[in-house]
């Protein structure tokens, strides 16, 4: 009998997907075939050349073809538009692949919950697969190192693994090839993994800006930056972004800021995640005061040459060089 992990399709070989697919190819049965698809075809060739020694890698022409060949699909693409294209396109999407209700679909992109519910329901109705939102996160700023080391956390829009639900065990097994099972959070239902992810990112992006502003204010008021960091670390303001992603250069040696704001998580990406937080706020009737304020700042930082393509903590450079006129 063919084990389900013998046939896996991976769609979207970008910064995250390339590293995640690498772990799948290394850990799946060496006799099994990994089918890969990305709109940027060259990356598929690079991936095949780099990892073909671990077992067969076949480049396919469309998500439809990827699905036709596989019992498991994993995808991670930029946003909801691309997710809809991968799954719902009437010519090339998974929705027009041969029916297979046992096909497991793990969609890992960070998108809004409503889109994932719509795509999941459409695929369920078409009988082309069981779609589960499985966005990823790490306790680092930016997910690529976690993707590379296979230690990702998965926020899963499905119930906990149970023997009455065979697909849940398959999901756990595939996720374990890319992540740390101690960091798998089963959020209960379609779209809930993304809802959890969006709430977390609402906080992390907003807190990063708050840290940058608080540090800038303290430093300008005459407090030594390292001393200020220690005070916060030992007081009620203590938080992960201040401790690890500290935006002031030279305060935390391993922070992106102390390393020329190396990535990390791009400044431009902060807008996307804050935007999802703002939209989720209005969709649930909670006014997203913090995320809206942070969004406005990051919108400007994202076009500031000091911050473009650097870690989002470079917002510190943006606020300390563009807000002089706020002094009274
Ligand atoms: P990326 O832009 O590096 O990669 C996206 C890949 O998808 C690219 O290779 C692109 O060619 C491909 N693609 C685009 N449209 C496609 C389509 N229609 N069909 C097939 N392939 C398509 O982005 P990334 O950094 O890998 O992020 C991917 C997703 O993961 C995003 O939703 C992002 O928010 C989320 N995420 C990123 C990080 C991170 O640190 N980069 C961390 C957690 C979550």
Automatic annotation (TrEMBL):
<dbReference type="InterPro" id="IPR029154">
    <property type="entry name" value="HIBADH-like_NADP-bd"/>
</dbReference>
<dbReference type="InterPro" id="IPR036291">
    <property type="entry name" value="NAD(P)-bd_dom_sf"/>
</dbReference>
<dbReference type="Pfam" id="PF03446">
    <property type="entry name" value="NAD_binding_2"/>
</dbReference>
<dbReference type="Pfam" id="PF14833">
    <property type="entry name" value="NAD_binding_11"/>
</dbReference>
<dbReference type="InterPro" id="IPR013328">
    <property type="entry name" value="6PGD_dom2"/>
</dbReference>
<dbReference type="InterPro" id="IPR006115">
    <property type="entry name" value="6PGDH_NADP-bd"/>
</dbReference>
<keyword id="KW-0101">Branched-chain amino acid catabolism</keyword>
<dbReference type="InterPro" id="IPR002204">
    <property type="entry name" value="3-OH-isobutyrate_DH-rel_CS"/>
</dbReference>
<feature type="active site">
    <location>
        <position position="197"/>
    </location>
</feature>
<keyword id="KW-0520">NAD</keyword>
<dbReference type="InterPro" id="IPR015815">
    <property type="entry name" value="HIBADH-related"/>
</dbReference>
<protein>
    <recommendedName>
        <fullName>3-hydroxyisobutyrate dehydrogenase</fullName>
        <ecNumber>1.1.1.31</ecNumber>
    </recommendedName>
</protein>
<dbReference type="GO" id="GO:0051287">
    <property type="term" value="F:NAD binding"/>
</dbReference>
<dbReference type="GO" id="GO:0050661">
    <property type="term" value="F:NADP binding"/>
</dbReference>
<dbReference type="InterPro" id="IPR008927">
    <property type="entry name" value="6-PGluconate_DH-like_C_sf"/>
</dbReference>
<comment type="pathway">
    <text>Amino-acid degradation; L-valine degradation.</text>
</comment>
<dbReference type="GO" id="GO:0008442">
    <property type="term" value="F:3-hydroxyisobutyrate dehydrogenase activity"/>
</dbReference>
<comment type="similarity">
    <text>Belongs to the HIBADH-related family. 3-hydroxyisobutyrate dehydrogenase subfamily.</text>
</comment>
<dbReference type="GO" id="GO:0006574">
    <property type="term" value="P:L-valine catabolic process"/>
</dbReference>
<feature type="domain" description="3-hydroxyisobutyrate dehydrogenase-like NAD-binding">
    <location>
        <begin position="191"/>
        <end position="302"/>
    </location>
</feature>
<feature type="domain" description="6-phosphogluconate dehydrogenase NADP-binding">
    <location>
        <begin position="7"/>
        <end position="176"/>
    </location>
</feature>
<keyword id="KW-0560">Oxidoreductase</keyword>
<dbReference type="GO" id="GO:0005739">
    <property type="term" value="C:mitochondrion"/>
</dbReference>
């Amino acid at each position: 009998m063919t084990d389900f992990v013998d046939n896996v399709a991976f769609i979207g070989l970008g910064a995250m997907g390339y590293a995640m697919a690498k772990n799948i190819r290394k850990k799946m049965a060496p006799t099994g075939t990994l089918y890969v698809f990305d709109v940027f075809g060259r990356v598929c060739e690079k991936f095949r050349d780099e990892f073909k020694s671990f077992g067969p890698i076949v480049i396919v022409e469309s998500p439809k073809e990827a699905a036709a060949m596989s019992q498991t699909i994993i995808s991670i693409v930029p946003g909801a538009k691309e997710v809809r294209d991968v799954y719902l396109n009437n010519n090339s999407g998974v929705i027009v692949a041969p029916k297979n209700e046992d096909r497991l679909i793990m969609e890992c992109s960070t998108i809004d919950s409503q889109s994932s519910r719509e795509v999941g329901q459409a695929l369920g109705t078409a009988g082309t697969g069981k779609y589960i939102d499985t966005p990823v996160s790490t306790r680092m700023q930016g997910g690529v190192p976690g993707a590379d080391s296979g230690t990702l956390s998965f926020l899963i829009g499905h119930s906990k693994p149970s023997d009455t639900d065979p697909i849940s065990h398959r999901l756990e097994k595939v996720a374990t090839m890319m992540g740390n099972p101690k960091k798998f959070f089963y959020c209960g239902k379609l779209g809930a993994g993304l809802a959890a992810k969006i709430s977390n990112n609402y906080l992390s992006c907003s807190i990063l800006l708050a840290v940058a502003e608080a540090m800038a204010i303290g430093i300008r008021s005459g407090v030594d930056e390292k001393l200020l960091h220690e005070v916060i670390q030992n007081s009620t303001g203590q938080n992960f972004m201040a401790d690890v992603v500290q935006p002031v250069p030279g305060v935390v040696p391993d922070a992106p800021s102390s390393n020329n704001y190396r990535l990390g998580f791009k400044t431009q990406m902060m807008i996307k995640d804050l935007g999802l937080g703002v939209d989720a706020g209005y969709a649930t009737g909670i006014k997203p005061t913090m995320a809206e304020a942070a969004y406005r700042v990051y919108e400007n930082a994202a076009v500031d040459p000091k911050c473009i393509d650097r870690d989002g903590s470079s917002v510190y450079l943006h606020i300390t060089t563009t807000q002089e006129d706020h002094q009274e």
